[in-house]
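User: I'm curious whether this sequence folds into something compact or stays loose and floppy. Could you predict its structure so I can see for myself?
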Amino acid sequence: MLIGKLERMIARLAWSTGLTSLVIAWNRSRGKTPILMYHSVRPRPVDWKTAPMVWQTGMAVSPETFEGQIAEFTKRYRCVSVREYIDALSKGSAKGLLAITFDDGYIDNLETAAPILRRYGANATFFLIGCHLEGERPAPVALYNMAHDESSMGRGGSPKVAFSRKALVLAGEEALGLSSAAYGFEMLDWRPHYISPEEAVGLDAAGFEIGAHGYYHLIASALDVERFKSDLLRSKKSVDKLIRGLKPGFAFPYGTPPVITGEKTRAVRECGFSYAVTSIEGLNGADADRFALRRISADEVPLYVTMFRLTGLRAGSKRFFQRLKWKYEKPGALHAG
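Assistant: Here's the prediction. I'll summarize afterward.
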């Protein structure tokens, strides 16, 4: 809370003095590219006590906030998919770009975000979860979130069991059994909440990029390399069927330190992906590791705060606090990605 207030105070001062615009212009001239990370775009909750989990974990923005952000971005940048950014980077022409991404494949990405993007001539990448595309089951954390939402709205499905959301995230493959036993995914009508294969094909046909976000959305640090590769390949296969002929990109679930290691980024490369994005905040230059690209989280904050984040001035301090969280607390707010 205190850090958030401090950020707003600094961001407001930077905006009012013109520092934000000055630093953004300087970064654009040097080819320093921000990649934005979104999850869900949906109306603000009326009652925050019963707000959906995506709001409680800071993974949602309202349509009004999202449109205001896109309108401002397109005044200053050419808004592209990550694939377009990588292509421009390889040609040495990546100046003035901003890449937009969405993780998890919520249906509101298609129904709400995509029309706004089209209206402003902006492109984006949608990273989808493999087990959702295959119609197999919800990813463990998706199931937890849905059970929480059903419970908060008085429709049953209590998430108050012997383990927390954090424990579920850290469980690795054991999360599949834990979540199924606790909630019974067959009891929840989960498919309408996520982009279907047919809808993904439609987004691809409309010019948007489709990428992979893991098959079960498991945290890489809980998997050894072989198990991680197995999940990667299944994830890639589920996307390859939709966008034949193109090597998809990959978004690390929970992609903060120490999830992102050289061992895991090499695995992504070896499995045939064209790039990978993380949840580590920062800008990307010509020397960026294409299998550990940095992103900036976009959430429900005033526009001047979002624009301040695009300067990259917050990134260093955020990485410092992320590492402290992992070292001393273990990850307690694992919602990024």
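Summary: The longest strand covers residues 97-103. DSSP finds 15 helices and ten strands in the chain.
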